[in-house]
Amino acid sequence: SDQASDQAELIMQFCTTPRSIKEIMEHFGYSNRTYFRKTFLNKLIAENKIVLTIPENPNNPKQKYVVNKNN
Predict the structure, then answer these.
(1) Which residue, of 13, 35, 66, 69, has the greatest Cβ tally within 10 A?
(2) Helix, strand, coil % (nearest 5) of the chain?
């Protein structure tokens, strides 16, 4: 939906600085991590628009997400 792509765009803008999933969710007012991950984050990662700061360990507690500047 357009609303989801608008939201994805805002998430990418917010992630020009590396952010934790908690920071992103709090900024946009989401509380359900599973929903947020499934609806936005996984898609952005799959499309290579957002990259992980610790790609070799996706579940690292210090994991952050940042916009892919090479895209």
Answers:
(1) 66
(2) 50, 10, 40
Would you give the DSSP letter of residue 40? I
| 30-40 pLDDT tens trace | 999 999 999 99
CA-based R_g, the chain, Å: 11
CA distance 51 to 67: 6
DSSP secondary structure code for residue 52 in this structure: E
The band of 27, judged by pLDDT with boundaries at 50, 70 and 90, is very high
Torsion of CA 6, 9, 14, 19, to 10 degrees: 110
**Side chain identity at residue 10, one-letter code:** L
